[in-house]
Amino acid sequence: MTNDDRRMAIPPLFQWTPPGRAVVFFLAASSIWCLLAEFYGLCSMRTFTLGVLIPATILLIVIALIDRSHGDRRLWRAVLVGAAGGFLAACAYDLFRLPWVIGAIDHVGPMWLRLPLFKVFPRFGAMILGQHFAPAQTDSQFTLLAHVIGWFYHFSNGITFGVMYMALIGDATRRSWLWGIALAAGLELAMLFTPYTSFFAIRLTALFVVVTLSAHIIFGMVLGLYARHRAERLGFWESQEAGQL
């Protein structure tokens, strides 16, 4: 079956077309909307997770699988490349922040090298589980399940940011990897205008802004470079049978 025949087999919304990319973007964005819904009192993070995030994630996977089996596989590959790139970028993002986290936990090193940058993770988990917590509550006072789910949610954001990036640029082989930095830095600056820091009782200092913005730049650099490199290695749009990451 030719690429044209495969494209005709499924609707444009399930293909790597502008409408299909818009669907992929909005389904992936449900991960970060989960947190914003709580911030702005639209609904609890738990309600959004169960009612929107999980169904949207399942639907995104189904659409990608439909394109893999009945389409030209561009959407399928884009989702895979974006997800893998987002995960790797999230790992690099956390590794960059680790020295500040260790300094804050162990009270070692200069004061400028001490920031509790991982404190939000168990709180994410507690919110998803519907568990209440106090602003001054320490990490050890959260359940193990809250920690695990919080980290899982954190990486889901990284993965979905990668998918959103692919949906925005369309073809990673024809776009500069610098767009990854633009997206990541834009997300960080936008988040600073939300109740993020006040909600989690984080001091909004110049140091915090510089470190978190630098971490997001690293996230964007890794995402952009990986997406471009992997897309080129796959012969991304030309080869119908290039399937594996």
Question: Which radius of gyration do the C-alpha atoms yield?
Answer: 19 Å
- What's the shape? globular
Based on secondary structure, the structural category is mainly alpha
Assembly level: single chain
SSE pattern, N- to C-terminal: HHHHHHHHH
Beta content comes to under 5%
Percentage of residues in helical conformation: 55-70%
> Which residues sit in consecutive blocks of at least 5 with pLDDT less than 50?
238-245
Major sheet: size, sense and barrel closure?
none
Query: Would you tell me the overall average pLDDT?
Result: 90
Helix segment tally: 9
Question: How many extended strands?
Answer: 0
Description:
Residues 238-245 have low confidence and may be disordered. The chain has a domain at 72-234. Helix 3 packs across helix 5 (120-129). The chain contains 9 helices and no strands. It is mostly helical.
